[in-house]
Amino acid sequence: MHKHLPATDRRTFLKSLAVAGAALALPGIAPAQAPSAGKLKLGFDNFSIRAMGWKAPALLDYAASHKLDTLLISDLDAYESLEEASLKEVRAKATDLGIEIHAGTWSICPTSKAFRNKWGTAVEHLSLGIRVAKALGSPVLRCVLGTGEDRKTDGGIEARIQDTVEVCKACRTKAIDAGIKIAIENHAGDMQAWELVLLVKAAGEDYVGVTYDSGNATWTLEDPLASLEILGPYTVTTGIRDSMIWEYEEGAKVQWTAVGEGLTDWPHLIERFTALCPKAPINLEIISGFARPFPYLKPSFWEPWPKARASDLAAFLAMARKGKPIDPHRSPNQEVERAYQKAELERSIEYCRGSLHLGQK
User: Fold this and answer.
1) Are 56 and 90 in contact (CB under 8 A)?
2) I want to staple 150 with a disulfide (CB 3.0 to 4.6 A). Which of 146, 214, 233, 359 is the partner?
3) Nearest CA to 284 among 224, 331, 237?
4) Are the C-beta atoms of 201 and 248 separated by less than 8 Å?
C-alpha cells in the first residue's frame, strides 16, 4: 500500500520514524498512568492450550474452573459462529461466569507475509474483528502486523508499519463508534517496542493501543522490562510468558518458558506494570518447548535491522549471560501435547497467584 503514496509522503513518514525513534531511545520516558489500588486481573490467551481445539464456551468453562478474571480469545476461529446472536450467547456466558473477554485476531497488514485473505481484505478483516469485539463486550481487539520475516520485505518494517497504519485509519470511525481499542501486538520479531509506539502514534492513540507480549520482546533482542517501560503507557491487553536466554557460538538462543522458569524479573515487572498500565490484565500466553537461535555474531544477521539500538542489544546480552540451556520438548502425539500445554499454563497460573499475588478472585 505504501507504494501508492506520493514520494514526498513516504519520505515524510520515514523521517518521522527516525525522529520519533531517537526520542524513544531511552526506556521510561513516557508518562506513567496512576498505580492501581487493587490487584491486576489474571487470565490467559487461548493460544496457550491451542492443542485442545476448544471453542469459546469450553474456554470460558476452563477459565472459570481456575477462577480467572479474563480470557483473551486471540483468533476468530474459536467461535462456533460469527453471527451476532451466537456471539451474544458467548458474551452472556462470560458475564454469568464473571469473566471479561478480550477479543483478538491475526495480521491486519495487507503486505505482511503473515496476512491471509480468509476474512477478506485487511480493512474487511479489521472491520469484522471490531464487530466481533463489540458483540462480545470486549474493550479491545488484539491484532498483529506480522512476523520478523516482514523486516526482510521491500521497504522493511517501516513500510509494513505504514501499511498497517493506513488500515487502522480506514477503520477509525468504526472502532471509536464501537468503543473498541485496536491493540497491536509486538509479535514474533516484527517490531521492537519503539517501532510499535511509532505505529500507535501515527494511527492515533485515541483508538489504537498495544498488546504487550513479554516473550516476543526477546525475539526482537529486547529485555521484557525495557520493552514494558516503552509500551506500558499504551498497553490495553497482554500476552505474557517467560524466556530463558543463553549464549552459543554464533550468538544467543531464546526458549520461552512457563512464568517463573526463565530470566524475567517478575516482581519488578509486575511493579512497573501496575504503575504503567494497571487497567490491563495479565493474560498468560504460554508457548514453550523449543529454542530459537539469534546468530548476531554473523554480519548477515543485521541486514533486516538497520536501526537496531545498542541499548536494546546491551540489555538482551546481559540476560543471555545469566541464562543456561534448557532441553526442548517434543510430544509424541496429540494427547501428550495437550497435557504438556495445560501443565505449562497451570504452573504459570499457580506462580502468578502464589508468588506474584495476581488475580482479583
Assistant:
1) yes
2) 146
3) 237
4) no
342-358 per-position pLDDT tens digit: 999 999 999 999 999 99
What single DSSP character describes residue 80? Answer: S
Instruction: Enumerate the β-bridge partners of residue 211.
Output: 185, 237
- In the chain, the domains with their CATH numbers are 36-241+264-286 (3.20.20.150)
Three-state SS for 233? Answer: helix
pTM of the model: 0.90
Question: With left for phi above 0 and alpha for psi between -120 and 50, is residue 137 left, alpha or beta?
Answer: left
Whether 278 and 35 have beta carbons less than 8 Å apart is answered as: yes
Contact, 341 vs 51, CB < 8 A? yes
Residues 22 and 360: their CA atoms lie apart, in Å, by 39
Q: Of the candidates 39, 42, 37, 56, which has an alpha carbon nearest to the alpha carbon of residue 259? A: 42
Q: Which amino acid is at 181?
A: K
